[in-house]
Every structure is written in C-alpha cells, then in structure tokens.
Specification:
The complex is a heterodimer of chains A (263) and B (287).
Chain A: H1 3-15, H2 21-30, E1 31-32, H3 39-61, H4 63-69, H5 71-84, H6 99-105, H7 110-125, H8 136-145, E2 149-154, E3 159-163, H9 167-176, E4 192-199, E5 202-207, H10 210-219, H11 225-235, H12 239-253, E6 257-262
Antiparallel strand pairs in A: 2-6, 3-4, 4-5
Chain B: E1 10-14, H1 19-25, E2 32-35, H2 37-40, H3 45-56, E3 59-62, H4 76-89, E4 93-97, H5 118-135, E5 140-142, E6 149-150, H6 157-168, E7 171-175, H7 176-186, H8 190-195, E8 202-208, E9 211-213, E10 216-218, H9 227-240, E11 245-248, H10 256-269, H11 277-286
Parallel strand pairs in B: 1-2, 1-11, 2-3, 3-4, 4-5, 5-7, 7-8, 8-11
Antiparallel strand pairs in B: 9-10
Helix pairs in contact in B: 1-3, 5-6
Classes of the chains: A alpha+beta (263), B alpha/beta (287).
Chain lengths: 263, 287
C-alpha cells in the first residue's frame, strides 16, 4: 500500500465512530500488534485522542451551549458536527468556525444558533490586537475643527450580530441556573443586532438599539462621517441620535470604532 | 539555529498560565519554547505576551501543524504565516515533528506516525527541503511518541530520522521522553535507539513526563520528569554531550515556581562528567 492510501485509511479509522468488519481485517493487514495493545486498540488510542482534543476545543469555545444542552446532547451534536465539518485549518482554534452554520443546517432552535454565533464572536474577538488609543477622541475633534474629512470604521475585533433580543438576558439567567427546560419557550423570533467587542482584555456584548445599529453599520465601510451623522439625525430624529453622536467618542476610546483621517 | 544557542541550558515550554508571572517577575529561566500554532491565528493577548517575552528571552518556535509527512501538498498559507512570525520573533530555533497531521485537506490535530518506508523517506526529504527553502531557515524535527506500528515499515525510526536529516539538511530535536514512551510501547531498547541517532544532528532536546495506561504509556507531558526519563537523559548527555533542553509540562500545568523547581532538579542531577572528546568535537562542528 502506498503512502497516500495508507494515510487515507489511517485517517478514516481515526475519525470514524465505529469500524466496519472489512475495516477490522484491513487494520490487521496494515498495522502490527504492539506488546501491550492490539493493532485495533492502537487505532482506538488515536481515535480517543482525536475526539477528546476536538471536543475539548468546542467545550472551551461554546460553554453556554454546553450548559444549555447538557453533556449528552452536546456530545451528540459535537460528534455530528465534526463529522460534517472536519477541521481543515492548521489550528484547532478554528474548530468552531462553522458550528453556528451546522446548528442552523440541523434545524436547531433559534436561541441555540444565536448563542453559538455569540460565543464564536467572543472567541474571535480575542484574536485581534488590543487597540489602545488614549486621547484619540481629542485628536478626532481637533481634526474635525481643522476641517479634515474624517471617517470611522468598525474595529475588526468587533462583530455586529443579529441575535435574539432575549439572548443577553438569557445568558445572565443561564449563569445562575443549572437546568433550563423552560427557556425554549421564552424565545422570540425577532432578531436584533448585538455588538460583541473586546476592550482592555475583556469581552463586551451589547444589545443595540435600531439607531445604534444603523450608525455602526454605516461606519462599517469607513464612510465619511459628515453624511453619516446627517443621515442618523434624519432617520432617527430623537434625543437618542444626538446621544449617539455625543458619546461615540467613548466607543472610539474603547476601540469599537477606529478613526481614519482622509486627507 | 542562532550563535550561542548550544549554551542556553535548560529552559521551559512557554504556556499561557505563566504569561503574567514571566512578564512580571522575569524568572531565571534561560530560554523558552513557544508552541507556534498558539500564536499564528491571533494578534491578540497571547501574541502580545509572546512579543514581550521574546524581547527578554531567547525563544524557539515549536510547531505541530507542518505535517512534514503528509501526502497532501504543503500548506503554504501555514508556511507563510510561520515565516512572518519568524521575522517578528527571531527564534533561536524552529522545529516541528516527524509526523503527518492529516490528508485530503483534513487536519486531525494529532501527530500521526509515519510508515518508515523508502517512499515515505523520499517524500519527507523533498518536503523538508521545500519547507526550509520557503522559510529560509533550517528546521529541526522531533522524534514522535507512537502507539501505532506499520507492518510495511522497513526502516528503524532512528535510521530514518538520521537519513532524513542528512539528506534534507534539517536537524533533530531529540525528545527523550518520546524515545522512552515508544520504547515501552514497541518493546525496543531506548539506549540502542539513542546510540543510533547521530549526535552531530541533534540541535536540542525535550524532556517531559508521561502516564501509564492499560497496555501502553501515553506521552502526556504531565507532572515532574520520571526518574527513568531523567536517567535516559543523563545517559544521552554522557554520550553526545550537553544540549539545550526544554522541560515540557502540558497537563495539570503547575505554578511557574513549581516548574522552575523542576528545571533546577533536572540541572542538579545532570552528571558532572564531560562528554567524550568525540561527542564534544561533533557538537562543535554542528553549530
């Protein structure tokens, strides 16, 4: 057997959950027994390590899903997930990248899917650089006063997610409870945007108002600020809009928005 | 490997729970070995810490995803990221394993053993040459711990590794615990294995703990270094001369102070006798 065939077979044996009878005899043909373990047991050692490694990564990235579903359901789901979406990345850290998509495809409840999106956004937000911008709001005000055109963009470590509105309340509730059968009844289908971001090495999750959401979406592509501010006031003529304009400096300070000067 | 590398002494595997302690207390550990993949996909906190620690300590980059033995084409995206990181960290050494991690585009995230065949050897030689050309640095390959033996293997692992290193120009990262673990699992003499490794190819060494399971030993990197691994390490030093060494501790990671005590323990028990003149000569020639 050549190297390619040998590797394909070994990998299939490690990733499968159960060996077929023809596989068992092939294992004996290709591998030899060791003094303390049979060839089949050797394969099982690698299979167990594979399962453990991948499961542990998913557990780390999706602790709330685990808590929501319980060990048994989570195990079953994770098993199906790694079969449907085996890792193709050099890093285990990418293992959970398709989990929300998988949950969607397997027709899980909206709450579960949203929770997975939220947890993955939290995991991702740690990968981006810490942006420390002391005084940048002042710089921005000076630039504006001097007539420079200024644009803002969403920091790459921030994610705007369309999540169930009850999700954050639910997450809080989840922290305090061991079981949660009644929670599914509390889910409402209306999705609202959330902002997930990292600042000072902490992850924040904010439920956005419609105006805040429009504001952030508009800045996603680093559009010039003047028309955006005008648009905000026109679409949402309220105190809230004025409040957003007055306080977006805080968002800049916390790294949610990055100012860009257009000379 | 950089000049002065062979004098580094006994360092430690750099692990996340120790970041803060290392940055705040600057412990007397001569060098660290960072796990490459922990920093490749991030520009966040772990990378920040690595950069800060690399400013103060020599760092080696030790990977698990180069997949030298895989039949798949080389993951150039991975190599590109590794090259960038080498440029940022300026590591004293870059290493990975003699293994494959997956095929047909899939990654099992395990260090899977190679069949030691002529075909596999030729494949690995080509592959290592390509990797070194892409990276622009010599790499070192670690002997794996293994729980699986191919009937089709025609080479002994030590001879396979020697030949691969000589033909491709890579070095060997000699993991003493892996030699011990595989020797118990496969039933061979670890001293004989070590005698067959060419001393001049060995760049640095690993020592670690392991766990006993039913019918086999697992390379778990847990706990203090077992006496039998320490003894084998001492034998190796007597034969080939001292090498920079990393103490690995990955399961139930202790406080940094405990790890430092373990390093001191390894240092204290190293035989004081010099290596043979022959091994000294070979060591000098290799750097």
């Amino acid at each position: 057997m050549n190297l390619f065939d040998m590797q394909c077979f070994t990998q299939r044996m490690i990733q499968c959950t159960e060996m077929r009878s023809e596989d068992l005899s092939k294992v004996d043909d290709i591998f030899r027994d060791l003094p303390g373990v049979s060839a089949i047991k050797s394969i099982e050692i690698y299979r167990d390590m594979y399962q453990t490694r991948v499961f542990d990564t998913l557990l780390d990235d999706f602790p709330r899903i685990l808590k929501l579903m319980g060990d048994e359901r989570f195990d079953h789901l994770a098993q199906s997930y790694i079969k449907a979406f085996p890792s193709k990345s050099y890093t285990l850290e990418d293992m959970g990248q398709d989990f929300a998509l998988f949950l969607e495809q397997s027709k899980q409840e909206r709450l579960v899917i949203d929770l997975a999106k939220l947890e993955w956004a939290v995991a991702l937000s740690f990968r981006y650089p810490l942006v420390v911008m002391p005084g940048c709001f002042n710089d921005l005000q000076v630039a504006l006063a001097e007539g420079d055109d200024v644009a803002l963009e969403l920091n790459p470590r921030c994610h705007v997610l369309d999540l169930d509105p009850s999700l954050l309340d639910f997450c809080e509730w989840l922290e305090q409870h061991e079981t949660f059968p009644e929670i599914k009844q509390a889910v409402t289908p209306l999705a609202v945007p959330h902002l997930v971001y990292q600042s000072s090495r902490q992850v924040f999750e904010l439920k956005l108002t419609q105006a805040e959401s429009w504001f952030l979406e508009s800045f996603r592509k680093a559009a010039p600020m003047g028309p955006i501010v005008d648009g905000l006031l026109e679409r949402f003529p309220s105190d809230e809009s004025q409040g957003i304009i007055n306080t977006f400096g805080a968002w800049i300070e916390s790294g949610v928005l990055l100012p860009i000067l257009i000379k | 490997m950089k000049k002065g590398f062979h004098d580094l002494g006994i360092g430690a595997g750099l692990r996340h729970p120790h970041f803060r302690d290392i940055m705040e207390t600057a412990p007397n550990i001569p060098w660290f070995e960072a796990l490459t993949e922990n920093y490749l996909a991030t520009e966040g906190y772990p990378k920040d810490c690595l950069m800060e620690i690399a400013d103060r300590y020599p760092i080696a980059l030790h990977g698990v995803s180069m997949s030298v033995g895989s039949h798949d084409s080389l993951d150039l995206n991975y190599i590109k990221k590794l090259k960038k990181m080498i440029g940022e960290i300026h590591p004293v050494a870059v290493s990975d394993h003699l293994c494959w991690t997956g095929v047909i585009g899939i990654n099992t995230h395990d260090l899977l053993p190679m069949p030691y065949t002529d075909e596999a050897l030729i494949h690995c030689i080509r592959r290592v040459r390509q990797i070194q050309d892409e990276l622009g640095v010599q790499i070192l390959l670690e002997n794996p711990s293994s729980y699986l033996a191919f009937k089709g293997s025609v080479w002994e692992e030590a001879a396979f590794l020697n030949t691969l290193a000589i033909e491709s120009g890579c070095g060997i990262l000699l993991d003493i615990n892996n030699v011990y673990v595989s020797s118990k699992n496969f039933g061979f003499d670890p001293k004989s294995y070590l005698k067959h490794i060419s001393p001049d190819l060995v760049g640095y060494m690993h020592i670690a703990g392991h766990s006993h399971r039913e019918g086999y030993i697992l390379d778990s990197h847990v706990g203090p270094i077992p006496s039998e691994v320490l003894k084998l390490y001492h034998e190796t030093i007597k034969t080939i001369g001292p090498r920079p060494t990393i103490v690995e501790w990955d399961e139930d990671i202790p406080e940094l102070s405990v790890l430092m005590k373990e390093i001191e323990n390894v240092k204290r028990t190293i035989p004081t006798g010099k290596a043979t003149a022959d091994s000294e000569r070979m060591r000098d020639e290799s750097f």
